[in-house]
Design goal:
- There is one protein chain.
- By secondary structure, the chain is an alpha+beta fold.
- The chain starts with 17 loop residues before the first strand and ends with a helix.
- Helix 3 crosses helix 5.
Length: 164
């Protein structure tokens, strides 16, 4: 797992979930296993199965191991969007913490969409892993803030004279 939260990639900041018809998504996707990590017979019987009609793309995913790093999620090769993506394997609650943790464990800062709506949940935030997730969320927000501030300054330099 990625221990140093300051060495993650920023390439997932602008990722948003992709909505796809569930039946089409299931027919045009397959779970991805890195070479040498093929599932056991028991895992094949209890195959991971996505349960929603959206996925979270993984930018420039290099095929590294994901098992044990993506709580409540699996990595799928989603042919219809020509990308690897995280797909939820459970439902019934807000999975923002798990989505953020999955991106962090795969080496990315969490997407802005997750960071801006990050929920406060009972019992979450005090463990070392939760603190790591919160730091990843903060780094995502800081990056977007810095980018937005830079855009605003450039905008003002170019156009403020027309609207003052």
């Amino acid at each position: 797992m990625i221990d140093n939260i300051l060495n993650l990639k920023y390439s997932a900041l602008n990722i948003t979930p992709v909505t796809i018809d569930y039946d089409l998504l299931v027919r045009r996707s397959e779970i991805y296993y890195p070479e040498g990590e093929e599932p056991s017979e028991e895992e094949v019987e209890n195959q991971y199965e996505m349960i929603f009609n959206f996925v979270w793309p993984i930018p420039d995913y290099d095929g590294r191991s994901w098992r044990g790093k993506t709580p409540c999620m699996a990595v799928y090769d989603v042919k219809i969007i020509n990308s690897f993506a995280l797909a939820l394997m459970g439902g019934g609650m807000d999975f923002s913490w798990e989505i953020a943790e999955s991106y962090i464990n795969l080496g990315y800062y969490p997407p802005y969409e997750i960071a801006t709506n990050f929920p406060r949940m009972a019992g979450r935030g005090e463990s070392e892993n939760d603190k790591r997730i919160l730091m990843g969320i903060r780094c995502s927000l800081e990056a977007v803030y810095a980018r937005s501030k830079n855009y605003l300054e450039r905008f003002d330099d170019s156009f403020w004279k027309f609207i003052k």
